[in-house]
Design brief:
By secondary structure, this protein is mostly helical. It folds into two domains: about 1-30; about 35-60 and about 90-315, MetI-like fold. The chain is built from 14 helices and no strands. It has helices at about 5-20, 25-30, 35-50, 50-55, 95-135, 135-150, 155-165, 175-185, 190-205, 210-215, 220-230, 235-255, 270-275, 285-310. The chain is globular, with a radius of gyration of 24 Å. InterPro entries: BP-dependent_transpt_permease, MetI-like, MetI-like_sf, OppC_N. It comes from Pseudoponticoccus marisrubri. It is a multi-pass membrane protein. This is ABC transporter permease. It holds the Pfam family BPD_transp_1.
Length: about 325
Amino acid sequence: MSDHQAEIETRRTPGRLARAWDSDLAYSFRHAPVAMVSAAVVLILVLSALLAPWIAPYDPFDPGSLNLMNGFTPPGQPNAFTQETFVLGTDDQGRDVFSTILFGMRISLFVGFSAVLLAMVIGVVLGLLAGYLGGWVESVIMRVADIQLTFPAILVAMLIFGIAKGITPPAYRDQMAIWVLILAIGLSDWVQFARVVRGATLVEKSRDYVQAARLVGRRPFSIMIRHILPNVLNPVLVIATISLALAIIAEATLSFLGVGAPPTKPSLGTLIRIGQGFMFSGEWWILLFPALTLLALALSINLLGDWLRDALNPRLR
């Protein structure tokens, strides 16, 4: 690359960043205090979860590091036996609550992101097929979606989780519990993606650019992927953001009911279930801090989804 070309590339980069900063989406974000606070909370929680092995003072999954004498230590107070102090206290097994929250949040976020990704892939593919092909393909997909919508999503997830866990060999159930949980939540949440993508595809396939692609001999699969899909991603992104909060809550609900993450790898829902057993015996911190973390995470993601929905809605611009 010549010096002249390098200088041109150097000039282009700030221009692109400036255009992105001055875009309608960035402008809407800068003028939405709720979205900015929510994004900051989500960023802090996600980074804390990703950096848990380096931030957490203890490894709650290592039985060798646990000391039962540290059990039920109140937040910020030294233990009566070991004189150790824990910022958020300890649970009945002597595990540091702060460390368990960080590691538990990793599992909750992993399950949430993976389940939404699975639901999005299934829903987008089926929605594109239903909207573009029509006919019996659309009828079958939409009738299955209508049937699934008649049942609460959490019940569908519990049913899928029970079936998948039942066919899993007992020796691998704890190892496969997280993946079964992802499968259960993902298969219970694809319907809304499919319905939205189908509706957007019905609109887009009548546009001139799709008709032109047909005239030049483009295959239906190529038209759906290269032409229609990029134009239906905005509502998919909004649904994915809101569904992430719902998936995290669904995981916490299943784990709270005892049909989710295994006790050896507790998520936020498992920690809340453990803390609920000590709520009336004075050890309030075991329940309170994981519950507040789950509330902050789900609420912040939901608020971001609401802002993104309004920002990407052309009627509100």
